[in-house]
Amino acid sequence: MQYVRDIRPFLLEKLAPIYGENEANNMVYWSIESALGFSKSDCIMQQDATVSETQKLNLLEIVSRLVEEEPLQYILGSAEFMSLEFKVNKHTLIPRPETEELVQWVLKEDFKSALDIGTGSGCIAISLAKQSKASLCALDSSKEALEVAKENAKNNEVAIDFIHADILQKPALQKTFDVIVSNPPYVLESDKKLMHTNVLKHEPHTALFVLDKEPLVFYNSITDFAQNHLNETGKLFFEIHEKKGDELLQMLQEKGFSKLELRKDMQGKERMVKAVWKI
């Protein structure tokens, strides 16, 4: 890798067998931008530029971690969500495009206050605060995740009230909200065999998985909490397991929620639910 033109074929040779040509190609340009500060067009315009020893070492470190299937977002330390940049690390999930759809759905509501339960990197709460005039709170059981979320709120110039609490322990807050939103753990233990190695090896399992015998454990706790912390006609929004929509709707109805709505994501999977408290 003496020149910029040498980088792409070198990295592709390492990454394409693992990730496929298209994904590997994207990783190559992200890696080059991180190590050299070169955009895709820069790579073409400055293909004869010399690669310094420091740049070469940075690239080699990135590719060695990618070969071990560590997510690129963790390697680079950031991820994009709703056109905002978020710091991410091993204590937070990497924000997914599907969750953007949930945020966009919430933003169609008229609300003055909202709580994000299981905030992780803070991507939901921060995005809502950035695009509304509502007062936002965000709750998580992980102190490490909350530190990341606080940093992301500061970097994105929004004010969030962060709360360290475990929703399974039935916390009692002295506030009520117009909206409660959550993307809680919902992946079944039995689904692990279907998941990519990079997720299983590197993303926090406590933020992902639930036991097969208790698939709605977080939804139950959050719904019970919402009964006491939603304002009249307040809305509850969930991201859900694609196979648990009907079961969740039944549970919400039994707990007194109305105007239940199950929505499909961009891939046609039933992945979002909205419910209204007491009408």
Written description of the protein model:
Helix content is 42%, strand content 22%. The protein has helices spanning 4-19, 21-36, 40-45, 53-67, 72-76, 97-106, 123-130, 143-155, 197-202, 217-229, 245-254, and strands spanning 78-81, 84-87, 113-117, 135-140, 160-164, 177-182, 187-188, 209-210, 230-239, 257-264, 270-277. The longest helix is centred in the N-terminal third of the chain and has 16 residues, at 4-19. The protein has a 7-stranded mixed beta sheet, sandwiched between helices. A two-stranded antiparallel ribbon has the order 1-2. Strands 7-8 form a two-stranded parallel sheet. The chain contains 11 helices and 11 strands. The protein folds into 2 domains: 4-68; 81-277, Vaccinia Virus protein VP39 (Rossmann fold, 3-Layer(aba) Sandwich). β3, α7 and β4 (135-140) form a beta-alpha-beta unit. By secondary structure, the protein is an alpha/beta fold. It is elongated, with a radius of gyration of 21 Å.
Task: List the main descriptive attributes of the protein structure presented here.
single chain, 279 residues, alpha/beta, Rossmann fold, 2 domains, 7-stranded mixed sheet, two-stranded antiparallel ribbon, 42% helix, elongated
Q: What's the SSE blueprint?
A:
Blueprint: H1 4-19, H2 21-36, H3 40-45, H4 53-67, H5 72-76, E1 78-81, E2 84-87, H6 97-106, E3 113-117, H7 123-130, E4 135-140, H8 143-155, E5 160-164, E6 177-182, E7 187-188, H9 197-202, E8 209-210, H10 217-229, E9 230-239, H11 245-254, E10 257-264, E11 270-277
Parallel strand pairs: 3-4, 3-6, 4-5, 6-9, 7-8
Antiparallel strand pairs: 1-2, 9-11, 10-11
